[in-house]
Amino acid sequence: LAKVVEDGLDKPAATRDNQRIHIHLNAGLSADTSIAVNKGVDGVGLYRTEVPFLLQRSFPSEEEQTHQYQSILSTYRDKPVVMRTLDIGGDKPLPYLAIEEDNPFLGWRGIRFTLDHPEIFLIQVRAMLRASIGYSNMDILLPMISGIAELDESIALIERAYTEVAKVAQSKGQTLKRPRIGIMIEVPSILYQLPVLKGKVDFISVGSNDLTQYLLAVDRNNSRVAGVYDALHPAVLHALKHIIDTSQRLQLPVSVCGELAGDPIGALLLVGMGYRSLSMNTRNVAKIKYMLRHISLEEMEQLAQFALTATFADEVRDNTIAFVDGHG
Ligand code: PEP
Ligand code: MG
């Protein structure tokens, strides 16, 4: 089977009837992104910059960060690389920065933390911009945006960093491309503000892990309530449908970078709903490409249609599995 799955891995992903689907990588370590094992992907859809921060003993300097970011931008020089600003807090505490809170997932994490520490945010964004000199493939993604004020504040800081780095670049005769800016759709409040994003951001990326956690009010890492955490819950599926429909109407580029995109059932349903860009861990790429290649878009649309009428997650799961099993 491994050989069958490997077959065609170098080719771009498409459904059986040749609807092109963009497959991107989720990464955080250079080992995840080695070009040799990731031939045939369309870029990096989520570079989790907190991973190198978690492995260090103290905050990496601007130089160190520039170096790290440069390495991934150059590896994927012809393809987009979506770099997410620091998403610490919640389940990702930094060893050298204690944050004690009763409800870490509802607390000081992601953009909330970095906007309260603009110096950390500015160092990181400057490092990203410096790393991007000479490349044109960098996008910046903001995590945990729950309202427009956070977005406006982040954009203002990015603009400030851009002006600083562009000035230095210009003095050396280099040009600095303006990065595309996007936000994670992972806090439910932002589902109701999607139209306001048009004109402010260049793209959105759906974080189904946190979206599920916050829609269902269930800690994504608590084994006691693991049975409640289900990305196929009808509420999550309807939220995902709302996002794709609205972004199509607004002509706002969208992709999904939560675990659901790399899950066989999830990928079929997402494509069936209308998503054309999925970002996943490297280990899921071959499997998802193989599956897409053997199923038509119309079949995926039917699976999604059924899923959106279901009352229970298990109905969705059973129906999709039965279809795939019937397919051999
Ligand atoms: C998500 O929440 O779905 C996501 C991709 O981000 P993370 O898992 O890093 O929180
Ligand atoms: Mg998240």
Automatic annotation (TrEMBL):
Annotated localization: Cytoplasm
Family stated for the protein in its record: Belongs to the PEP-utilizing enzyme family.
Stated name of the protein: phosphoenolpyruvate--protein phosphotransferase
Organism: Photobacterium sanctipauli
Residues of the full protein shown: 415 to 742 of 751
